[in-house]
Write a structure and sequence with these properties.
- The protein is mostly beta strands.
- 5% of the residues lie in helices and 30% in strands.
- The chain contains three helices and 17 strands.
């Protein structure tokens, strides 16, 4: 658990800590359902609150929910948001059969009725051949998934989370598995303990900070890659070959939403050529980056653009996919950062 005030601590390990055009997604859920998943999902606890670090207080604001898909071995996923421990019968997965593509996000607004509002919420990931899921309910998909479809329960969010006056982020991670999803480097792709029959799908969840400096671009970084197990550091380099990179997050490990307060090392002006500005990952005790993502790449899968980078408007960059060393493959996605509005 990481208790940062702006952080949600979950078990199994899931993570912590506008002015943009982040998609607002209409609700698509009908009233509920879900057969058991062959065992109780792990419950969760929170360490949220109005407090902060070193006396820093996170300002209250409207409760918002941004959902990001970081499942490595599916081009898109659907999610079941189910009342726990008694799921409502007949609930439909969100979004529609097209799913939420890898490295994309959407704001669920309003949060209810897609997400049950009167208790704890279990989340199940539906991956694989989404065209086969049609209009089937979450309970049908869970008890009798069609061929090529995997359904994995990834945890329970306590009811108190959705009562917080904060900008909530939920990012799916890991792999759902399935026949043929195997490789010599599969643990670097999907995380420790993975095999095609033992999925590692999970969640990173927490709060994106609304704190900011009106003369700077507030930035936070989310580690949502189960394959990237080595602790690293995050640097930001302005868009010029002659510029110097600055450490934004000294210690960056799975589940982190960091730093808090947000990094405010640069303004729009000092980022220079924003498309060529870089997010670099370096070894914890190293200097040379082992992963470099330009802002142009980070905004490529985003519903924002580099034109949305403005002083005083917070950005959260979510890192997801296989470990950088694994690249991309026939059934998995490479590591990438994608940009989101911290306060959509």
């Amino acid at each position: 658990m990481i208790a940062l005030g702006a952080c949600l601590a979950l078990l199994p390990p899931v993570g912590c800590g506008d002015h943009g055009r982040l998609e607002k997604d209409p609700t698509t859920s009908a009233g509920g359902g879900g057969a058991g998943m062959g065992g109780d999902p792990t419950t969760t606890t929170t360490t949220t609150g109005a407090g902060g670090v070193g006396g820093v207080i996170e300002p209250p604001g409207p409760t918002t929910l941004t959902v990001v898909n970081g499942v490595v071995d599916s081009d898109a996923v659907r999610l079941c948001f189910l009342a726990y421990p008694d799921p409502q019968a007949g609930a439909l997965p969100w979004p529609g059969v097209e799913g939420l593509p890898f490295a994309r996000g959407a704001v669920i607004d309003p949060i209810a009725p897609t997400v049950p509002s009167d208790g704890d919420v279990e989340i199940r990931v539906v991956g694989g051949d989404l065209s086969a899921t049609g209009g089937q309910s979450c309970d049908t998909l869970s008890s009798s998934p069609p061929a090529g479809v995997s359904v994995v329960s990834v945890g329970v969010l306590p009811a108190s989370v959705f009562a917080e006056e904060k900008s909530l982020l939920v990012a799916t991670t890991g792999c759902v598995g399935g026949v043929g999803h195997t490789d010599a480097a599969e643990e670097a792709i999907c995380g420790p303990g993975y095999s095609e029959s033992t999925p590692t799908a999970g969640l990173v969840a927490g709060f994106m900070s609304r704190l900011g400096d009106l003369d700077r671009v507030p930035m936070q970084f989310v580690h949502a890659s189960t394959g990237l197990t080595d602790t690293s550091a995050v640097r930001v380099r302005p868009g010029s070959d002659n510029s110097t990179a600055t450490i934004a997050v000294p210690t960056f490990s799975y589940g982190a939403i960091a730093p808090f307060p947000p990094f405010v090392g640069f303004s729009v002006g000092t980022l220079l050529d924003i498309t060529e500005a870089q997010i670099q990952l370096i070894p914890a005790n190293g200097v040379e980056p082992f992963s470099v993502t330009t802002f142009a790449q980070a905004f490529d899968e985003s519903l924002l653009s580099t034109a949305d980078v403005e002083d005083g408007h917070g950005l959260t960059f979510v890192g997801m996919g296989a470990a950088p060393s694994a690249g991309s493959g026939s059934w998995w996605h490479a590591f990438t950062f994608t940009a989101f509005a911290s306060s959509p």
